[in-house]
Amino acid sequence: MLILALDTAQADCSAAVYDCDSASLIGRSVETIGKGHAERMMAVIDAALREADVKPAALGRIAVNIGPGSFTGVRIGVAAARALALAVGAESVGVSSLASIAFQHRMARPGAAVMATLDARRGEAFAQVFDAEGEPLTPPAAHRYEDLADLARAHQAVPVGTGAIVAGLAQPMPEDRVTIDTIAVLGASAVAGPAVSPLYLRAPDAKPQLGFAVARA
Asked: What is the DSSP letter of 165?
């Protein structure tokens, strides 16, 4: 089976084609743009498919980073994954940012439980604890910086990721940045279900302005 992996949840706008039979990445395109993912998403996908010499109809699965991450970025990636899956008759699966961070750190330093974190600002970090085999020990949730140490201690987990860095519990490492390669690999083993949905752990920062709504008839 061929998998198209997508990630627009952070600064990167990225896509990759993964061949499950050879367990290898055969096409990859990454643009670190910060904003403007919607404008670049289809061009990035096209570049990855061209490098892999694969037509969209050959895809059997679409895997996408469902967050947590940029509220708008996550929406763009999930919408693209759902639309492509529908168009080519493929299944869609979601891969979380926190599971990806935990996986990358386990590959680099195996044998320990990991508390994966992402800085959520406003005094909070998104965090989830995984055991040494990658199984989740806690649900993904937003935690205050000052509570992260207790969460890690309760599960004897190593704190990693940008949230742990801001909280003074970890040092920056290359594995803190989610790669499209990881989305592809984890997407290959994910269990397909209903249409993929974003993983939102709190309300968006942007709020509609009060007093400017048009009255409904």
From this structure: H
